[in-house]
Amino acid sequence: MTSPSIILGAPGWWPWAASLAGLALALIVWSYSRAGAGAGVRTACAILKALAFATLALILLEPLLSGLRPRRGANAFAVMADVSESLLIRDDGSEQTRGDWIRDRLRREAPWRARLGQDFDARGYTFDTHLRAVDDFDDLAFDGPGSAIGAALASLSKRFRGLPLAGALLFTDGCRTDVGDVDWSSLPPIYPVIPPAPGVARDVGVRDVSISQTNFESAPVVLRAEVSAVGYAGRPIVAVVVDEAGVEVQRQQAKAEADAKPLSFRFQFRPARRGVGFYQVRAFPADEEPKPEAAGASPASTEQTLANNGRLVVVDQGGGEYRVLYVGGRPNWEFKFLRRALRDDEQIKLVGLLRIARKQPKFDFQAARDRTNKFFQGFDNPDAETAEAADQPVLVRLDTLDEAELRDGFPKTAEELYRFHAIVVDDLEAGFFTPDQLALLRNFVAVRGGGLLMLGGPDSFADGGYDRTAVGELLPVYLGGRAEPADSGGLRLVLTREGWLQPWVRTRATEDEEHKRLAAMPPFRTLSRVGRIKPGAVVLAEVADPDGAVAPALAAQNFGKGRVAALLIGDLWRWGMRKQDSEESDLERSWRQTARWLVADVPRRAEVAARPKPDAPAPAVELTARVRDPEYRPLDDAKVAFKVALPGGESLTLDAEPDPREAGAYAATYVPKRPGAYRVAATAVAVDGSTVGEAEAGWAAQPAADEFARLAPDRAFLAELAAKTGGEVIDGSRLDAFVAGLPARGAPISEPWTAPLWDHPLAFLIAIACLTAEWGLRRLNGLA
């Protein structure tokens, strides 16, 4: 109902009413101007009498009160009740659960429900992960596995699309478990009703777990856990990380402070196996640690619930083998230390292509009869088929897949080069490559997404003629305008601020140890000088000469889909010549971390990801596979199947459909039926029947942990929901008053209404009251 307005039923009487009012006013003024009382008394009496005659004159116009109100029964109004498990919480000092409070408000005989049914077509719904229509709310169980508030409201909006829905009462604590933003624009006015929760008595819960994987040798996985500890101020809280077999990986302890301040735990560890693995973070009071069944009974828990004491997290250490191609202009110490560092790495395979003799001039008239490279001179009867020609360099291949790989030198086609995930170019001039090979290297980084590292030396960077080449575009430094080499006895390596923030640049676990490591490093004597750093690139390390002048030593940048680094030091091998306290040198660890950084995000021909589907009505998971051809372009005609391993050992297979949103992407949706760890293996097959690739991913379904991640009602979310939809948060104790005033808030289908004011008793009472008051004033002041 809109704000009522006053209209005149007999506007034709306006001249007569005005004349009557004017005549009365003139007589009043004339009569009181001759009275003998004071000016204040005469004015008050005149006003009272004039107001009485004005009211009687207005009645002649037949004033009517008019407006719009919802047509009874024409508009729907939804009543929604959250039946998730979080409503079973009994707050501190409360004798009933939140669910009991909601059930009492929704009982059939509640007066507000009868009044709501008089003005609207009231519809009842319950929701957890789905929205369901109900006839009454007497049998609410509060056993739902989640509280998908956003999905429930979206489903309600979809059900009433094109129908008159005046609003919705939402009985919930606001602790939603679905993901994604709520589409406010499609919703009617929402009126949340929140249980009066004073607070949780005691509870320890793992709120959030995040994981990041680094190339830091000692701890490639960093797991952060946020733990709430309500009611345990001053008491120690323990957080434990366990693997899939229940074996403890790490343990930490911290003292709880204020209830509103969660504890933060940070774990660093190295997974025992590569591929997809699952770890669980558990938190509990130190004196209430649950014991294994074999160890006897666990101490009684004082917590509100134990459903939020653990949370699963997925760790993907990658699968398969990464291949790094080292291309060197001469055998040197750098390749020796790099090969030694990667020798025992299970995930990285180093392939070497070393030039041991340069090519000779093509036309040499003094040796016209002997067309073999001079490197073979002195050998008896060199094999003409294996001896390189004079105009070809002599190359040595190491650790190739087969005899055919790299047989003709550096790859000349994308299919050959894209078999590798990273390229290391060491002391090799640009003239070694053809223009097509230089362009291929650029595409290797920009299109294929590979990693490229160029090492310093006499034939690298500007000295190697890379300026104004396709590879020169990749490098994070400008090659023109380079400075002259410093005339010094040695160059000391220091890390920049950006370098300290990159785990793959450091080799020690703590800052103090890293400072000691830098101080113990030998001085270097070979540095390729370059120009300025390109925009978007970062300098991770610098070298300083005895005079204090600094120059870049290590720079990196992203280029296209890949990444590029420039290590300008040409004698890094000196670092490995120092005696180490441990069996493994810092140089070997640094090389291994650098190689892992180069291949960390390099795409494969087949990849798979499992992410929550935000627009699904249930906690569904969207499985997406991306498939590429040998040149790493999207492959649109592949056949992809997902094999999902369920908790408990069972499995099922889903056929993927092409995703219209992205070329080369294939998707399927799966709704987990039970809690636990899920693995998915994607297999992509080309049209010719050949296998393009296989990939693995995983996710964890933990509805109880999500449901009880936050025990306090989310009043901020519900207030925002009400404000953006035109509703308001309703106090549960004033439901009767709220429902009584609902017709004044408007509705999609309304009807006009009018009510006469001219014959209302109040109008005559106003006139009589004014005349009575005027008569009383005259009598009190002795006026006739």
UniProtKB/TrEMBL annotation:
<keyword id="KW-0472">Membrane</keyword>
<keyword id="KW-0812">Transmembrane</keyword>
<keyword id="KW-1133">Transmembrane helix</keyword>
<feature type="domain" description="Putative glutamine amidotransferase">
    <location>
        <begin position="403"/>
        <end position="598"/>
    </location>
</feature>
<feature type="transmembrane region" description="Helical">
    <location>
        <begin position="13"/>
        <end position="32"/>
    </location>
</feature>
<keyword id="KW-0315">Glutamine amidotransferase</keyword>
<dbReference type="InterPro" id="IPR029062">
    <property type="entry name" value="Class_I_gatase-like"/>
</dbReference>
<feature type="transmembrane region" description="Helical">
    <location>
        <begin position="44"/>
        <end position="65"/>
    </location>
</feature>
<dbReference type="InterPro" id="IPR010768">
    <property type="entry name" value="GATase1-like"/>
</dbReference>
<protein>
    <submittedName>
        <fullName>Glutamine amidotransferase</fullName>
    </submittedName>
</protein>
<dbReference type="Pfam" id="PF07090">
    <property type="entry name" value="GATase1_like"/>
</dbReference>
